[in-house]
Write a structure and sequence with these properties.
Elements lengths: L11 E6 L16 H15 L4 E4 L11 H15 L8 E2 L3 H4 L21 E3 L15 H8 L3 E2 L9 E3 L2 E5 L2 E8 L4 H9 L3 E6 L6 E8 L22 E5 L5 E6 L6 E4 L17 E8 L2 E8 L6 E7 L12 H22 L12 E8 L8 H6 L12 E5 L16 H8 L8 H10 L9 H13 L5 H20 L6 H14 L1 H18 L76 E3 L6
Parallel strand pairs: 1-2, 2-4, 4-5, 6-9, 8-10, 10-11, 11-13, 16-17, 17-18
Antiparallel strand pairs: 1-14, 3-7, 7-8, 9-19, 12-13, 14-15
Length: 610
């Protein structure tokens, strides 16, 4: 776009950001303010660059029910940077009562004469700030009712999704802004497959509109129906702003099939210590003139430095003898951590607002148990130098090689690959498969394999969807209680954990018995219908592992028949408002609204079946 031939009055300037996660780790004395510092920088950039509006791609908040402090800080930042007397230069053309029909006040905030908006903010919601509970409200609804943001893209009917664009104009540039807030990926995949997702387009001068779509879904391939394919989106789109994915890919990437460009802003705060989060964090200013656009990336200067490295011990030349392998490994890793700290400090921006202590992650792959060590104790030696001493080291067993190399991480692809390699055993009971999976892997010291297997069996055979979470929670509580009673010195915690694991292994039969009792009680006392506000029933159960008294009789209720408190069949839970009536008309109904707005009608895009 040649700016010398373009008038500034005709160019839309949009600051694009996503996944702010306000309130992440807010109780951590070191990292608690990171999300607020980064968001303040984004808002200050919007003000300094004099953008026409700020566009957010979901997950403004980290929790669906943010704390009072988190809401307070968010409202204070919006009020400080978004209110003012500066004129808004964009004209809103579409029917506001349709665009914001889910809002209590269905209007764009800068046209409200009682609110002085200097920087309009438009946002969808993500999976972290998803609507829940009474009234099906999200934290975005709270901000919307204050008039500080324009909340759009909230679906009200999951049997079919109709996406109506916000029509904006600045000079000669016309923008159709589409938004779809987070929907579970498998459900949205089915809706696309069944052609139940409709994109409405303006009837007049259809080729003059620049089309932007904002979404918050899985983009990376995570399996069948676990991510949205770019080719499922209509080809008339010009730019897709993709939220939810945290690795920053701010440079527009053109899809060769559909032709549109994808911009993935990523998250300005590292919510997980993985490689994708270590990529430098950016936001972008999207400049649109008629049907042309360009993106100016802006590197954030207040983000906490983060450096990550993977060390495969078998590929290093660490000199040690077998009975002192752990000491040699720790000495080697200490040197590596110090180098990473220097690297992180060299990447500092010089901005005084930037947090001082860096995030360091060292992923260590070992192939001999003698090489392992207490990673918590090791991390504490750097507590004055880094922000995450508890999470500094991630110990992983090096991948096994039996004919071919395969991943053994349980939290990634290990289980799926295990099932593929043992497909002939799928007919076995679930508990047998779970136990077989852990036979060739490092024994867990807190969670018990027998108990976990029983929970998985209950989940599959009894449709007890809370079974696994209940048992994990009860085993964690039992471990905490054991450690609180047994450990007086922090240096003895590793030995105590080993002792706890040994006690579990020695009393497997009692573990199974106790697991079944807890699951039975949990099913008996669970309400007939799930309520999002009563999701912590499992906190009232505790698995006692440190050896239970033998020979103790346990009364067990009958499994047959339905007694008081038994759980009936679970009906499908409707989320959202009552479904719309289908009148067979593809045009949008006009509604009475401000005389300053020009009403537009729409047609269903012919590409919606792609």
């Amino acid at each position: 776009m040649d700016e010398s031939e373009v008038s500034a009055d005709d160019v839309l300037n949009i600051l694009v950001a996503s996944d702010i996660h306000l309130g992440y780790e807010e109780k951590d004395p070191t990292r608690g303010k990171d999300s607020f510092i980064a968001f303040e920088e984004i808002l200050s950039l919007a003000k300094d660059k004099d953008v026409d509006f700020l566009l957010l791609g979901g997950d403004l908040f980290h929790d669906a029910k943010p704390s009072q402090y988190c809401l307070y800080r968010a409202l204070e930042l919006f009020r400080r940077y978004c209110l003012g007397d500066s004129p808004v230069k964009i004209q809103f053309l579409s029917d506001q009562s349709k665009n914001f029909e889910h809002c209590l006040y269905p209007e764009v905030n800068y046209e409200n004469e009682n609110i002085n908006i200097a920087i309009p903010v438009f946002s969808i919601h993500g999976n972290h700030d998803d609507p829940t509970g009474l009234g099906f409200l999200s934290s975005m609804d709270l901000l919307s009712v204050t008039g500080l943001i324009n909340y759009f893209g909230k679906w009200t009917d999951l049997t079919q999704v109709e996406i109506t664009p916000l029509l904006l104009q600045k000079g000669k540039t016309k923008l159709a802004l589409y938004g779809l807030s987070y929907i579970k990926d498998d459900r949205l995949c089915r809706l696309f497959r069944d052609r139940k997702v409709k994109f409405l387009r303006p009837e007049e001068n259809i080729d003059e509109w620049f089309n932007i779509f904002v979404t918050h879904q899985n983009r990376a391939d995570r399996g069948i129906n676990k991510s949205i394919k770019e080719t499922a989106l209509p080809s008339f789109l010009d730019v897709v702003i993709w939220g939810h994915e945290h690795d920053c890919r701010i440079k527009p990437e053109q899809n060769p099939t559909t032709g549109f460009h994808v911009i993935q802003p990523g998250s300005p705060v590292a919510t997980s210590l993985c490689e994708g989060e270590s990529i430098p964090k950016h936001v972008g200013i999207l400049k649109v003139y008629k049907k042309k656009f360009e993106l100016e990336p802006i590197k954030l200067r207040t983000v906490r430095p983060f450096v990550m490295e993977t060390v495969v011990l078998s590929k290093t030349n660490i000199p040690y003898i077998s009975n002192k392998a752990s000491e040699a490994v720790q000495k080697f890793l200490t040197e590596r951590v110090n180098i990473l700290i220097q690297t992180a400090n060299s990447q500092r921006s010089g901005d005084p607002r930037q947090p001082k202590l860096p995030l360091i992650r060292l992923r260590v792959e070992y192939n001999d148990e003698m090489q392992t060590f207490n990673h918590l104790r090791f991390g504490q030696t750097f507590r004055e130098s880094i922000a995450n001493p508890k999470d500094l080291i991630l110990l992983k067993r090096e991948a096994s090689r039996k004919g071919k190399e395969y991943e053994t991480d349980f939290d990634k692809d290990g289980m799926s690959e295990f099932l593929e390699r043992n497909s002939q055993d799928i007919g076995k009971k679930a508990e047998v498969i779970v136990e077989s999976y852990f036979e060739t892997r490092e024994a867990m010291k807190i969670l018990n394999t027998k108990g976990l297997a029983e929970a998985v069996s209950s989940y599959i055979n009894k449709n007890d969807t809370d079974a696994v979470a209940t048992i994990i929670s009860s085993q964690e509580k039992a471990a905490r209680k054991y450690l609180m009673e047994k450990v007086e010195d922090l240096d003895a915690i590793a030995e105590a954990i080993d002792g706890y694991g040994a006690a579990q292994t020695a009393s497997q039969a009692d573990v199974v018995e106790e697991t079944r009792r807890i699951l039975l009680e949990n099913r008996s006392f669970r309400p007939a219908a799930d309520d999002d506000d009563n999701s912590d029933n499992d906190d009232d159960t505790e698995m006692v592992i440190s050896p239970p008294a033998r020979g103790r009789g346990r009364g067990r209720g009958s499994r047959g028949g339905k007694g008081p408190g038994s759980r009936g069949g679970r009906g499908s839970r409707a989320r959202g408002a009552k479904a719309k009536n289908d009148n067979g008309d593809n045009s949008l109904a006009s509604s009475t609204r401000s005389s300053r707005t020009t009403k537009k009608t729409f047609i269903v895009d012919s590409d919606d079946s792609d």
